[in-house]
Specification:
By secondary structure, the chain is of the alpha+beta class. The protein has helices at about 35-40, 40-55, 65-90, 105-115, 150-155, 180-190; strands at about 10-20, 25-30, 140-145, 160-165, 170. The protein has 6 helices and 5 strands; from the N terminus they run E-E-H-H-H-H-E-H-E-E-H. InterPro entries: PGBD (IPR029526).
Length: about 190
């Protein structure tokens, strides 16, 4: 261990149990002050590691920097939760800081994400506008070939087609083997 605060000569006495023969005896052993102060602060580090483990977002990734970035974000979330809890405890009179009983780190993270992304929890995503029932869905041949939307949704295979539905704004297969154009419009016309 290296420290800029402690000297190498300052020592404290630590008690260790030593076995001599069949009995255990306590022996006083000198220990550097640096080690003693480091170990006394390790409880906070262990608690921090434990809280990071509860809501860990680390994924096995090929890119090392993603792992490092997500770990730094986890540490920042845990530290901000600890500071928030300390601030709440020191200022119980502030109503904006009051939370329900059992307010934990996960609830703090969810609230933090809602604040960052501007989501208040009451807005529901509006469904996409329905396709007009009497719209003219006619296959059009276009110059640029793009992936068939339905084939890609099903199999994640890129099958290029130059048939385009101008109403739906999607490319769809329309061959003697596959009729994605007809299937797409039948599926969208019938409610699920």
């Amino acid at each position: 261990m290296i420290s800029t605060i402690h000297t190498a000569n300052k020592k404290v006495v630590a008690k260790r149990r030593v076995r001599s023969g069949n009995t255990w005896t306590e022996v006083s052993v000198p220990k550097p002050l640096l080690t003693d102060e480091y170990n006394s602060g390790m409880l906070g580090v262990d608690k921090s590691d434990q809280m990071i483990g509860y809501c860990n977002v680390l994924m096995r990734s090929v890119r090392w920097w993603k792992t490092l970035l997500f770990h730094c974000i986890d540490i920042a979330c845990v530290n901000s939760f600890v500071l928030f809890q300390a601030h709440r405890a020191s200022h119980p009179e502030i109503r904006e800081l009051s939370r329900k009983a059992g307010y934990d780190h996960l609830a703090f993270r969810e609230e933090l994400l809602e604040q960052i992304f501007g989501f208040d929890g009451k807005q529901a995503r509006s469904p996409p506008p329905p396709t007009p029932k009497h719209a003219d869905h006619k296959p059009q041949k276009v110059q640029k070939r793009k992936n068939c939307k339905l084939c890609y949704e099903r199999t994640k295979v890129e099958l290029k087609t130059n048939v385009f539905c101008d109403t739906c704004q999607v490319h769809l297969c329309f061959t003697s083997v596959r009729n994605c154009f007809g299937e797409w419009h039948t599926r969208r016309a019938t409610p699920t």
